[in-house]
Design a protein that fits this description.
The complex is a heterodimer of chains A (515) and B (476).
Chain A: H1 3-18, H2 23-47, E1 56-61, E2 69-73, H3 75-94, H4 103-122, H5 126-135, H6 137-147, H7 152-181, H8 186-191, H9 196-213, H10 222-229, H11 232-257, H12 259-264, H13 266-285, H14 290-309, H15 314-345, H16 356-359, H17 361-375, H18 381-396, H19 398-423, H20 430-433, H21 440-458, H22 461-478, H23 494-514
Antiparallel strand pairs in A: 1-2
Helix pairs in contact in A: 1-2, 1-4, 2-3, 2-4, 3-4, 3-11, 3-15, 3-22, 4-5, 4-6, 4-11, 5-7, 6-7, 7-9, 7-10, 9-11, 10-14, 11-14, 11-15, 13-14, 13-19, 14-15, 14-18, 14-19, 15-17, 15-18, 15-21, 15-22, 17-19, 17-21, 18-19, 18-21, 18-23, 19-23
Chain B: H1 2-7, H2 9-28, H3 33-53, E1 59-61, E2 66-68, H4 70-88, H5 90-93, H6 101-118, H7 122-140, H8 147-178, H9 183-190, H10 196-212, H11 221-228, H12 231-256, H13 261-283, H14 289-310, H15 313-339, H16 357-360, H17 362-376, H18 384-396, H19 400-425, H20 440-453, H21 461-473
Antiparallel strand pairs in B: 1-2
Helix pairs in contact in B: 2-3, 2-6, 3-4, 4-6, 4-12, 4-15, 4-21, 6-7, 6-12, 7-8, 7-12, 8-10, 8-11, 10-12, 10-13, 11-12, 11-14, 12-14, 12-15, 13-14, 13-19, 14-15, 14-18, 14-19, 15-17, 15-18, 15-20, 15-21, 17-19, 17-20, 18-19
Classes of the chains: A mainly alpha (515), B mainly alpha (476).
Chain lengths: 515, 476
């Protein structure tokens, strides 16, 4: 049994065990299983050969007759799997005291979710990928529906049906691809050249599915509902990992498999991303519900990701990947910040808080750090991603870069405004005064999240290095179809071009600032 | 003649076994439940063994009116297995004593279905269909003191007779314009000029058969009959006769009407889409779980018809695979329904009464959730796989718009399945708690089928594909 199969099996076995034990033991089993998976993830990362073969840890077993149990990862998948296994133990810890009803089922659902998420990122067979991709709906439906807030039923149905409707079209496109190429093997499909007119249809079908998962404006409306109603750990995993499946699908399937259609239809992505950045940022600015605010900010961040991906160049795609990782850590942390005070006061209404810096200084510190990371302050993970992706977008289109740049400014506005209302101000309300600072368990969750957010901000090379080769492969695949950008960068050697790109980016940033 | 008899062992065993069971019931009386139940189960098992023994034989018997082939064998095994389960689970349901007519009627219905599955002549088709139908009418009204059951039987009979009439009319037209009742002969005649009379014949034959598979717009009887009939009988109606009628329709379309693809394909496409959409929309708002499952069966028949609409060998393979998974899911879900009883021991059929079921009967609720999600075709449950196969067949037959329409409509269907799961899992426990468990047999069947439909089924895709390909190749 390979390492990847083992990583899939551990949470699955633990999930079954959780159904048959007491609440306390279910928590312990779930925590132990997720920690084991995290340890396995670290082994995976240390044994990953950077610059080696594109696909590593490959496994292949002809179990299903028509398709295969084929696993394997490249650098992008590795980092997303790392994100998953890193967040899962924290999610279990975050639900330690908050979940008191039907704990065994809850933990089982989270562990199944972990299996499914890892499966999505390491599947090397198209049908296997689809099965994992869709299967995620079921545990999330239960998590929102059973342990969610007051309006959880509506949110659970909306989440399920919305994302299902998107996904089914992708299945038809996959069938057509399998028919055309005669294989379900993803690496083979990546090298297959589909006829251009067919690519357009396939691209649109995939886009229908992935845009919903992403989520892109205007099909993002399920996300605020799902986030607001989901329990804290559910929001963490939803924002942290599930939203990355959409972007992963863009990068793994749509761009390298349909390069001509991607170039031809990139304007759709750019237009939707620009609208999303501005519109959802403005919507976030006027929210009274903390979770809703962060949910809208996720949509805005994901829009920068899509724009960065469709810049078709090294910086743009690397930047998008770093935003994905950074957003995975930071938004999970922000949702946990909300969860911490929600557990104490049982409301998410921003107006009910205020002055928390006085009685909860440690909480205020962490919240500050993650707010800054979300805004993109240099030194935090958010900065690296936004810098790189905006540099890449500028190369493709200065107008798109300009509009997406406003997202950074608006992001600062709504996040700082949120922070001011919750943490600063007078501590007047009695029930807020009575709130104790964070507990040891909450420290244990905040510290690793903060450490990773800073690590990614100070030395992003650790995360970029494994992905660089894969991004280069995608960029090379896209190169023949790539339209000329409007930035007119001078062509040069790769080193020089990179330096030039960063200078160009500086201009874009200034332009954004002036605007 | 005697050589022919050697090839129809399954039918002979069923006939003799049915008569013996009938005699047992008559002379031993209704008290000897175990005795005649055992006789009927042994009969079915022996018939299944005979079918397996005949695998590999390709022949026609009785002057080419019946086919002995893998296609019929595949269907017969499914039919016999479903009938077996429906007899095995019945005694507990009929608390005041199961009467001997029940297994006898099911045995004769199974005999009729076996003939349907093997028919390669319009006359044998009709004989098999009517033998099955007559037994089914009586079964529907089996609880003679229950109003709903009598109503179900009457409704089924009246509408069923109408459908038989249409079928016979279509048969007479086909015979009149082609001069033969033999499927192969009809196919040869249809290769030439296509007249209005022939077209009418095709339409009426398909309409008559569509009634039996309860495809929209010939589905009106289904919810009422499913609701009114005793639950074991409903389990039976939803499983075995569906297989028989679907296999028969496949044989007629692929075997007899293949050259007239332009004539039947659009009809089948219409039936498929109408069934998927109406089956999904009609189920929304149903408060009775048996009615809901009735609409679900209409919905699923629509998906099976997509495979048939492709008209290719791949499409027929998909139909067979779908039937197998569908039968397992249907029997499993009805077995769960069978276990739901309130404190007085009365059957619970209302969906709101299931509120919070997962909290006091977690295993049962989990099994039901697996069956429902599988019927909806959500991966990783195995119900996804046959849906994939029918859509693949449709895409490969260049019916992409049909596949897209079907799969989009399947999302509507998902709504009511997850609504039932919501009742079982998200709602608070209701006052009228459901109690009463099943016996070991029922529990085992439910558990095994639920496990098979969760991820384990995927391990059997290879053998399933081999078997269905072998069976389907007979027709091409």
């Amino acid at each position: 049994m390979g390492l990847l199969s083992l990583m899939l099996a551990v949470p699955m076995v633990a999930a079954i065990a959780c159904l048959f034990v007491t609440d306390r033991n279910a928590r312990l089993i779930a925590f132990a299983a997720t920690l084991i998976d995290f340890a396995l993830g670290i082994v995976l990362w240390t044994r990953f050969d950077i610059g080696g073969a594109q696909w590593q840890f490959t496994e292949r077993a002809d179990l299903f007759g028509r398709f295969q149990w084929a696993l394997g990862i490249d650098g992008m998948a590795l980092m997303l799997i790392m994100l998953t296994v890193f967040l899962m133990p924290l999610c279990i810890l975050a639900s330690w005291d908050a979940i008191t009803r039907r704990v065994g089922l809850y933990m089982a659902m989270f562990l199944v979710m972990e299996t499914i998420m890892i499966g999505v990122f390491c599947a090397q067979d198209l049908i296997l990928f689809y099965i994992f991709f869709e299967a995620g709906l079921i545990p999330m439906y239960f998590i929102i529906g059973i342990w969610g807030g007051a309006n959880r039923i509506y949110a659970a149905f909306k989440f399920f049906l919305y994302t299902l409707l998107g996904s089914v079209l992708m299945l038809i496109a996959m069938i057509a691809m399998i028919r055309e190429a005669g294989t379900t093997d993803i690496p083979t499909l990546l090298a297959y050249n589909f006829p251009p007119e067919m690519q357009t249809w396939l691209w649109l079908a995939f886009f229908a599915s992935l845009a919903v998962k992403m989520p892109m404006w205007p099909v993002h409306t399920w996300l605020p509902d799902a986030h607001v109603q989901a329990p804290t750990a559910g929001s963490m995993i939803l924002a942290g990992v599930l939203l990355k499946m959409g972007a992963y699908g863009f990068l793994r399937f749509m761009m390298p498999m349909f390069p001509d259609a991607s170039a031809q239809l990139m304007w759709i992505v750019f237009v939707l991303s620009m609208i999303a950045v501005v519109y959802t940022s403005l919507v976030a600015l006027v929210q009274n519900d903390m979770k809703k605010l962060i949910a809208y900010s996720s949509v805005a961040h994901m829009a920068i990701v899509t724009a960065g991906l469709f810049a078709f160049n090294q910086q743009g795609i690397e930047g998008a990947l770093i935003i994905m990782l950074s957003h995975g850590v930071v938004s999970a942390a922000l949702f946990f910040c909300v969860g911490v005070i929600y557990d104490r006061l049982h409301t998410r209404e921003i107006g009910r808080y205020g002055g928390l810096a006085v009685n909860m200084p440690a909480y205020a510190l962490f919240f500050m750090l993650f707010t800054m990371a979300s805004v993109g302050l240099p030194g935090t993970s958010g900065f690296v991603g936004e810098f790189l992706s905006l540099a890449g977008i500028y190369e493709a289109s200065s107008w798109v870069a300009l509009v997406c740049g406003t997202g950074v400014i608006l992001g600062a506005a709504y996040m700082l405004y949120l922070y001011r209302r919750v943490v600063f101000g007078e501590l007047t309300k009695d029930d807020v005064k009575a709130m104790p600072d964070i507990t040891a368990r909450e420290w244990a969750i905040f510290v690793p999240l903060a450490a990773v957010a800073l690590w990614m901000g100070v030395y992003p090379e650790s995360f970029l290095a494994p992905m660089r080769g894969d991004v280069t492969t995608v960029v090379a695949r896209l190169a023949p179809a790539k339209p000329a950008g409007d930035a007119h960068l001078a062509a040069g050697k790769s080193k020089a071009a990179e330096a030039h790109g960063e200078v160009a980016h500086g201009e874009a940033h200034q332009a954004g600032g002036v605007q | 003649m005697s050589a022919d008899l050697a090839l129809i062992w399954p039918e002979l065993i069923l006939t003799i076994g049915g008569l013996i069971t009938l005699m047992l019931g008559t002379f031993a009386g209704d008290r000897q439940v175990g005795l005649y139940q055992l006789a009927s189960l042994v009969t079915l098992a022996a018939a299944a063994v005979a079918v397996i023994a005949l695998f590999g034989t390709e022949a026609t018997v009785f002057s080419g009116t019946l086919a002995v082939d893998a296609f019929g064998g595949f269907a017969k095994l499914l039919i016999y297995a479903a009938s077996f389960v429906c007899i095995a689970i019945a005694p507990r349901f009929f608390r005041d004593g199961m009467r001997a007519e029940y297994p006898v009627l099911i045995l004769f219905a199974a005999l009729g279905m076996g003939i349907m599955a093997s028919a390669r002549d319009l006359m044998t088709l009709y004989v098999g269909l009517e033998l099955n139908s007559l037994a089914a009418y009586v079964l529907a009204s089996f609880m003679r003191t229950d109003d709903r059951s009598s109503e179900a039987g009457l409704k089924y009979f009246v509408l069923g007779s109408l459908a038989s009439g249409m079928l016979l009319y279509g048969i007479s037209l086909l015979y009149g314009f082609t001069g033969t009742t033999d499927f192969a002969g009809i196919a040869k005649a249809l290769g030439g000029e296509m007249g209005t009379g022939l077209l009418f014949g095709i339409v009426f034959v398909i309409a008559g058969l569509a009634f039996k598979i309860s495809a929209v717009p010939f589905h009106m009887w289904t919810p009422d009959v499913y609701e009114g009939a005793p639950t074991p009988v409903t389990t039976f109606f939803a499983s075995a006769p569906k297989v028989a009628a679907m296999v028969l329709l496949t044989r007629v379309i692929v075997g007899a009407m293949a050259p007239a693809i332009g004539a039947w394909q659009q009809i089948v496409i219409f039936l498929a889409l109408a069934s998927i959409i109406l089956g999904a929309v009609g189920a929304i708002g149903q408060k009775n779980i048996k009615r809901l499952l009735a609409y679900s069966s209409i919905n699923n028949v629509g998906f099976i018809l997509i495979g048939l609409a492709a008209g290719t060998q791949q499409g027929v393979e998909a139909v067979l695979s779908y039937l197998l998974v569908y039968v397992v899911t249907t029997i499993g879900s009805f077995l769960v329904v069978l276990q739901l009883r309130d404190r007085e021991g009365q059957q619970v059929e209302s969906i709101p009464a299931l509120a919070g079921l997962s909290q006091y009967r977690p295993g049962l609720a989990a099994a039901m959730a697996v069956f429902l999600l599988s019927l909806a075709g959500i991966p990783p449950l195995f119900g996804f796989w046959p849906k994939y196969l029918v859509f693949e067949a449709a895409v490969n037959a260049n019916l992409v718009p049909l596949a897209v329409a079907g799969i989009v409509a399947s999302v509507i269907g998902a709504f009511y399945y997850i609504a039932v799961i919501k009742t079982m899992y998200f709602d608070e426990r209701s006052e009228a708690e459901v109690s009463g468990g099943g016996n070991i047999l029922e529990g085992t069947i439910v558990a095994v089928s639920a496990l098979w439909l969760s991820v384990i089924g995927y391990l059997f895709i290879g053998p399933l594909a081999t078997a269905s390909a072998h069976a389907a190749s007979v027709l091409f």
